[in-house]
Amino acid sequence: MKMIEAIIQPSKLEAVKEALNEVEVVRLTISDVQGFGRQKGHTEIYRGHEYTVNLLRKVKLQIAVNDEFVEPTVQAIIKAGRTGEEGKVGDGKIFIMPLEDCIRIRTGERGSEAI
Q: Of 3, 9, 61, which is closest to residue 35 (Cα–Cα)?
């Protein structure tokens, strides 16, 4: 089992959800997050004053999957989350971590059956 965390552009969320649905990944958690990487923020003008916004809005997906779903999940996120053919700075990141256990609270099932 693996835990996949993906940080993507908010504008790509619906496309990523559709792509995940196509590969039969239908359970995920979505959070609004802020951060920066290579983009390092940007400058805006508000009421005539210039200020720097260094934390950019992103969306974080958390997806627990069995091992056979790891690669289809990753490829779906890349395909739908990338800007254009080559992608652009700020498209996001995907992290894959081992998942030691999973427990369904309702039934007490453990492991891959709980996912």
A: 9
